[in-house]
Design a protein that fits this description.
72% of the residues lie in helices and 0% in strands. It is built from twelve helices and no strands.
Length: 310
C-alpha cells in the first residue's frame, strides 16, 4: 500500500464474474507496490524525498489520464468534488508518500512492506474508537498478533550495518506514523466522503493535486531542479518504476480487481507485497534479514487475516 487506496470495494459495484486477468491485475498491483520501497531507497542515493514524489506524481498523471479515458471517466471535477479530492491528494498521496520516502533513508524496504501490510488491523482499531464498529474476539486476537509481529519485524527483522541496540530506527518510527496516517485517512474518508467517486477518476485527480502540492513545496524551499539532469540510469529507472508502475498501473489494476472480486478475497493478495519486497530488496539493494523478519511477518499476516475474516 505504497499509494492511496481510499476508494473501497463498497464504492464499486461488482457487475461480472472474475476472470484470470482480474486476478492477475490484483497480483501485479501488489507486486508493483512490493518493489516500491526498494526503488525509493535506491533513488534516495541521488535524489531527495520531495523531488522523488514530484517526479513520481508527474510521471503517473499521463498514465492515469489514459486509464481514465479508456474507462470513460476522464472529466474535470465538479466544485463539490474539488475539496475532497484535494484532501485525498494531500493526505492520502502527497503526505503519505513523502513520509514513507523519508522513512526509507534509515529504514529497510523489507520492514516497510511488512508494516504497511499491518495497516488494515489499525483501521479496525480506529473504526472501533471513532465509528463504533465492533471488533470480534477473533479480530482482537488478530490485532494482538499484528502488534507483536510489527514489534518483531522492526526490532529484529533486518541485519543492521551500524551498531544499534534500540528498537528500530528513526525510519522505522516514521513508518509507524505512515501507517497511522493511512489508517486515520481511511476512517476520515469513510466517515465524511459521501460522493461515490469512480476509482479511475478519483485516483487521477488525487495524483494531480498531489503533484500540485509537491510543486508548491519545492518552489517554497527553492529546490535546485538542475540536479535532476545529473541523475544516473539507476535513479531514473527507479523513479520511472515508481511513477508508471507503483503509482499509476498499480492503482488501475487494483481497482480493476476490486470491481469483480470480493474485498475479503482481495485482502489475501496483499500478502504478496512483502514477499516481493523481500526478494527485490535482497537482490537490488542488498538488504539482509534475520529469521525474526519471517516470524514477525507470519504473525502480521495471520493477524490481518483474522481481522478481515467474517
Amino acid at each position: 500500500m505504497a499509494g492511496s487506496r481510499v476508494v473501497t470495494a463498497k464504492n464499486i459495484k461488482i457487475v461480472k464474474e472474475a476472470r484470470i486477468a482480474d486476478y492477475m491485475a490484483v497480483v501485479l498491483a501488489t507486486v508493483f507496490w512490493g518493489g516500491s520501497f526498494a526503488s525509493t531507497k535506491l533513488a534516495l542515493a541521488q535524489s531527495d524525498p520531495l523531488t522523488i514524489i514530484w517526479l513520481r506524481c508527474g510521471i503517473a498523471i499521463p498514465v492515469l489520464a489514459l486509464g481514465a479515458y479508456l474507462q470513460k471517466t476522464l472529466r474535470l471535477p465538479t466544485r463539490k468534488e474539488i475539496v475532497p479530492l484535494f484532501a485525498m491528494g494531500f493526505q492520502g498521496i502527497f503526505f503519505h508518500l513523502l513520509i514513507q520516502a523519508y522513512a526509507m533513508k534509515t529504514s529497510s524496504a523489507a520492514n516497510a512492506n511488512w508494516v504497511m501490510v499491518a495497516g488494515p488491523a489499525l483501521v479496525a482499531i480506529f473504526g472501533s474508537f471513532f465509528l463504533g464498529e465492533k471488533i470480534s474476539k477473533q479480530g482482537a486476537a488478530g490485532l494482538f498478533l499484528s502488534v507483536i509481529g510489527v514489534t518483531l519485524v522492526l526490532a529484529f527483522g533486518t541485519v543492521r550495518n551500524e551498531a544499534f541496540t534500540g528498537f528500530g530506527s528513526v525510519g522505522d518510527l516514521i513508518l509507524i506514523a505512515s501507517v497511522v496516517n493511512w489508517a486515520a485517512f481511511s476512517i476520515i474518508s469513510r466517515k465524511f466522503l459521501q460522493q461515490k467517486l469512480q476509482p479511475g477518476f478519483a485516483i487521477l485527480w488525487e495524483m494531480c493535486f498531489s503533484f500540485a502540492c509537491s510543486s508548491l513545496f519545492l518552489f517554497m524551499i527553492g529546490a535546485d531542479f538542475s540536479k535532476i539532469s545529473g541523475y544516473n540510469f539507476a535513479t531514473w529507472q527507479s523513479i520511472i518504476f515508481l511513477g508508471v508502475f507503483a503509482s499509476a498501473l498499480a492503482h488501475l489494476f487494483w481497482f480493476q480487481g476490486l470491481s469483480v472480486l470480493p474485498a475479503a478475497r482481495v485482502v489475501i493478495f496483499q500478502f504478496i507485497q512483502p514477499i516481493v519486497g523481500i526478494i527485490v530488496s535482497y537482490f537490488v539493494i542488498g538488504e539482509r534479514f534475520t529469521p525474526w523478519l519471517f516470524a514477525g511477518g507470519a504473525m502480521i499476516a495471520a493477524g490481518v487475516w483474522l481481522v478481515n475474516r467474517k
